[in-house]
Design a protein that fits this description.
elongated; alpha+beta; five-stranded mixed beta sheet; 21 helices
Length: 624
């Protein structure tokens, strides 16, 4: 027979190499991945039937069968199957984006094997079968195809696809087990793995057992495969909830918290939702990522990740909804727009926000949540205006109260610590934690013991344009200069060092001249202490972070003209004021200006010029 040989895409070759040579101790995860693929395939076929002429489906005929045949472990399903194109696309030649990301995550680790069980999270779970198999054969027949196909590979760079006469729909995967993995040819061992990872899969998993009495064999159902969610809460243990969670998404670790409710009446549904402790790798990919909510209608799985079922900023939530309110043969389009889905969204949103509020009482767990999902959750301020207050209660920030990156405060904490007379919530936005916490803008606030929230995530500037106040207290960005200085200082009448003497005024106008095309204005400030200078913008102007944000997405933004503020009490400034040589003065002013820009933006157009300037000035001081 002529073989049709194909080559794996190079990334997949690399992935297969890792699998084949893996000494990973948790090899048994391959079975979880194959079972989950089979169960998906069955869900897809069910859904296909629901949406076509077969509106009545016999749910009892779907199953996954597992048996041992010579040196092969076989996983067989009667799901949707694959066409030839699908075989090529899904199992071989076109690299899925997940392959790259998975490789990246594995290759970055010191111990390369340490986390292979994340494989399913990247949408490349199928390949884990090569950890235990020399050769994998996939017999499959799709509902879309007259023919069946046989895909074979030993994982060494090539695979073959040939026509194959298969009677029934679905996919049989034959794994020729490696000599070093013989335990996977022991059916009792396989049963244990099924129960460990796949107990709650919503399809019966049948295992072939020899019936010694009748010299025959029987199919024994191994998993519970019940709909856990329809049971009474009081009869479900935490352990069962967690196991069930693994059956809907085996790759996200233990959940942080969950909520299980039955709603009866006009709207009739059950929800079981979980807050994960890790995010799927593609959660930031708008085109690819679907939320983790599975919709069931009368216990029949219909669809995962319906757009409108929860708001986008809550897309990290995993779980299931089961309802009697929809009819099974509802089309996708109608479903998306149905009134009931709207009702669901509102009530799920409330439940999730409440769940998060309960979670927030456990600081340690909430920190995990915030680290993983905080930046996604912040999107809610824009997306969900009606819940803005509830969302803002759940926000967490770094703050000058701790000056530590992993100690967070809430807005309520902040309010409780405000000083008498303080009427604003102060915050600073910078590129990263260190440049925020060391910013010259903070000096005066530190001195006055006023707490400032430290923001340094890309989304923060955008977020703050939606968050104007909290409990009627306005937010104020201390990167801005239009706060009336005496305002911060009402707590203690300022001893503003007003420099009205002639020398100082001449100095100011010289600086203005030197920086003419670069800055908006130049003035003295009493906000600084250890820093000699700082640059600021005012509220109605574009801020540094916004300008960075815009240019990072390719917008053409004009260079910001800052207000250049000088600390007249600084020893350097006192020295510079006394310089008479205009050329030398120019050098010093450029030096001051560039350091202020560097601190504000973390970036200089011409850093080597700046370094040369510093060296120049230092050399002059030495020679002197
Ligand atoms: P994922 O399941 O995350 O997409 P996998 O590597 O596990 O990634 O599987 C790749 C794809 O191969 C699946 O998305 C599916 O389209 C197809 N596939 C795998 N196993 C089966 C199966 N038993 N029946 C039908 N399609 C399958
Ligand atoms: Mg899979």
């Amino acid at each position: 027979m002529k073989k049709n040989i194909y080559k794996f895409k190079s990334e997949i070759k690399q992935l297969l190499n890792i699998m084949i040579n893996s000494l990973y101790s948790k090899k048994d995860i391959f079975l979880r991945e194959l079972i989950s693929n089979s169960s998906d395939a069955i869900d897809k076929l069910r859904f296909y039937y629901i949406n076509t002429k077969y509106s009545k489906i016999d749910d009892t005929k779907f199953n996954i069968k597992i048996f041992i045949n010579d040196n092969n472990l076989v996983i067989s399903d009667n799901g949707i199957g694959m066409t030839k194109e699908e075989l090529i696309n899904n199992l071989g030649s076109i690299a899925k984006s997940g392959t790259k990301n998975f490789l990246k995550s594995i290759l970055n680790r010191k111990k390369k094997d340490s986390n292979l069980d994340l494989i399913g999270q990247f949408g490349v779970g199928f390949y884990s079968s090569f950890m235990v198999a020399n050769k994998v054969s996939v017999y499959t027949k799709s509902i879309m195809d007259k023919n069946g196909w046989l895909w074979i590979s030993d994982g060494q760079g090539k695979y073959t696809i040939d026509e194959y006469n298969k009677d029934n729909l679905g996919t049989d995967i034959f794994l020729e087990i490696k000599d070093s993995c013989k335990e996977f040819l022991n059916i009792d061992f396989i049963n244990k793995i099924i129960i460990k990872y796949s107990n709650h899969i919503n399809v019966p998993i049948l295992v072939k057992k020899i019936d010694k009495k009748n010299n025959n064999y029987i199919w024994k159902k191994i998993n519970i495969s019940d709909a856990l969610w329809i049971k009474d809460k009081s009869n479900i243990s935490d352990k069962e909830y967690i196991k069930f969670y693994y059956s809907i998404n085996p790759n996200l670790g233990d959940p942080l918290i969950w909520s299980h409710n039955k709603v009866e009446g006009k709207n009739d549904y059950i929800n079981l939702i979980y807050i994960p402790n890790t995010s799927p790798w593609n959660i930031w990919n708008r085109d690819e990522y679907k939320n983790g909510i599975k919709l069931y209608i009368n216990r029949v799985f219909v669809m995962k990740g319906i757009n409108k079922i929860i708001p986008y900023y809550l897309r990290f939530v995993q779980g299931i909804i089961d309802t009697n309110n929809l009819s099974l043969n509802i089309s996708r389009e109608i479903l998306q727009d149905s009134n009931f889905i709207n009702v669901l969204r509102l009530s799920l949103t409330n439940r999730i926000l409440k769940l998060l509020s309960i979670l927030s009482e456990n600081k340690e767990k909430y920190n995990i949540f915030w680290k993983e999902f905080g930046n996604i959750f912040k999107e809610g301020l824009a997306e969900d205006e009606n819940n803005r207050y509830k969302i803002s209660l759940l926000l967490r920030f770094c703050s000058t109260f701790y000056n530590e990156e992993n100690k967070l405060v809430s807005l309520e904490d902040y309010l409780n610590r405000m000083l008498p007379g303080q009427d604003k919530i102060y915050y600073i936005i910078s590129d990263n934690f260190l440049s925020a916490v060391n910013s010259p803008h903070l000096e005066i606030y530190r001195k006055k013991k006023i707490e400032v929230l430290l923001m340094f995530n890309r989304i923060d500037e955008w977020m703050m344009s939606y968050l104007l106040d909290f409990k009627n207290i306005k937010f104020f960005s201390i990167n801005k200069n239009d706060i009336n200085e005496s305002n911060i200082l009402t707590l203690e009448k300022s001893n503003i060092h007003t420099l009205n003497d002639k020398n100082s005024l001449i100095f100011l106008s010289k600086v203005k001249n030197i920086l003419l095309d670069k800055v908006k204005d130049v003035k003295f400030t009493n906000k600084l202490d250890i820093y000699p200078v700082v640059v600021t913008t005012s509220t109605n102007e574009m801020s540094t972070q916004m300008s960075k944000l815009l240019s990072s997405v390719g917008k053409n933004v004009p260079k910001i003209k800052y207000l250049f503020e000088i600390n007249p009490n600084h020893i350097l400034i006192k020295y510079i004021i006394s310089i008479n040589d205009d050329n030398l003065l120019k050098k010093w002013i450029y030096y001051l200006y560039n350091q202020a820009i560097l601190i504000e933006t973390n970036y200089l157009d011409n850093s080597s010029k700046f370094i040369n300037l510093i060296n120049d000035l230092l050399s002059m001081l030495i020679i002197k």
